[in-house]
Design brief:
The structure is a homodimer of 252-residue chains.
Chain A: E1 6-8, E2 18-21, H1 23-32, E3 40-44, E4 50-59, E5 62-72, E6 80-84, H2 90-101, E7 106-111, H3 122-136, E8 143-144, E9 148-149, H4 150-155, E10 162-166, E11 173-174, H5 175-180, E12 188-192, H6 200-208, E13 212-216, H7 224-239
Helix pairs in contact in A: 2-3, 2-7
Chain lengths: 252, 252
């Protein structure tokens, strides 16, 4: 039986466990999908894989599902951070959605000199990431970190993690070429600047840091959201899990 | 002097030519950017490169600019078609914008068995493509073709053009691997299905056609818009112009 929904939960997943669902999830299952108790759903929590479960309770104030069997064990996922200067309106939500689909493990908003958006609604980005993870069959939800100044993030950069900085101006290697020489599956970060680009002193700083590789994404000036999506897709294809396939579909 | 705007025009561009601008462009220059006659702009028409020009007329009903000098000659661009099943709402506009930024030469909406959107507003997609071409410094605007049934497009497929079909189910080669063996700069097409995927008979048809390579984009189920953007970015990086750089910026 094809599951009627796929939900991210916080609770531990184990055989025969009864998992509480939130008020929001109960509303979605009852009022949007119009499900009844007894329907099959999928649950994942980022730690214990993905489980088939049956809806056992479905009330206005909440719901619950009882696990039936594990469909997929938890599997390691690429360790890929996306650092991005917040952009306006819907576009930042779109970045959160696409970064989740493209397998980022962490979304880190960074404030740069030309960042024009002062406030980031982290809770909204998290909600969008959860929704995208549920849709795309990921076994985890990326962490959405609180915004920090770019310099601070660079100063605290962990040893052993490379940072590919998308640079429209100045010298940069084609990203595909840089990735061809990078080790596969190594902890990495991608940095995408604001619509106005990095400032000259930010570019100088980035070029000085040994863990940074400035990379180019071709001859067209990409919007910040496009650059983020393109860079994520390239990293996954050339250094991540692009050679893997989605899980088999359920028969109807 | 940094140009105040970059505009796509239809008229031939030549030294000292006076180029009529549309009512919409006049409104944008006057009321949105609040420019005055005498200001410098950039013009391109997809045939004769990019030109510096001075605004010579700026009225409610229209405007005109006179070319000063050519900034960049017309250059060949990748010959890359994007075939996509129309999707709902803003997402199809987003695909038009991103495909333009990522250098598609032609956008071809295709109707498949699981396509749920019956009508495509081609004029709106064209307007979005023009806007994106103006922003991203392209020298051309992609053609936006009228929607056609997938089968018809496949039956009329031109000799010598490979089609990479993004397939979530069934056998497929990792797209990066398929591209590594494809000739660079060869006429190509990318096919992205609707949110419900291709039907089994469509998948069978695609696998039978010698010019089609079914390709995979990793283990997560991508939304149709994400798949289109990821595929375009990969093609440009590995078989297109991803090793080129944007033109130098204007000094302020």
């Amino acid at each position: 039986m094809k599951p009627a929904a796929r939900l991210y939960v916080e609770a531990p997943l184990a055989p025969g466990a009864t998992i509480p669902l939130s008020e929001g999830q109960a509303h979605y299952l009852r009022s949007v999908l119009r499900l009844e108790p007894g329907r099959r759903v999928l649950l994942f929590n980022g730690r214990e894989g993905e489980w088939l479960a049956d809806l056992t309770e479905l009330r206005k104030s909440g719901a619950a599902a009882t696990t039936v069997s594990q469909r997929r064990p938890q599997a390691p996922e690429p360790d890929l951070w996306l650092l991005f200067a917040p952009i306006k309106g819907d576009r930042v939500d779109y970045v959160a959605e696409k970064a989740t689909e493209l397998g980022a493990s962490r979304l880190q908003p960074v404030m740069t000199r030309h960042t024009v958006v002062g406030r980031v609604n982290i809770e909204r980005l998290r909600a969008r990431a959860v929704e995208a993870a549920e849709q795309c069959e990921r076994l985890s939800v990326p962490e959405v970190a609180a915004p920090r100044p770019l310099r601070e993030v660079l100063e605290a950069w962990p040893a052993g993690r490379r940072l590919f900085a998308c640079a429209e101006a100045g010298p940069a290697r084609p990203f595909a070429e840089a990735l061809a020489q990078a080790p596969r599956d190594a902890p990495s970060g991608l940095l995408v600047g604001p619509e106005g680009g990095f400032s000259p002193d930010e570019l100088d700083l980035l070029r000085e840091l040994a863990f940074v590789t400035p990379v180019g994404l071709g001859p067209r000036l990409l919007r910040a959201d496009t650059a983020a999506i393109a860079a994520l897709a390239l990293w996954q294809a050339l250094a991540g899990d692009g050679d893997r396939r989605p899980p088999p579909r359920f028969e109807n």
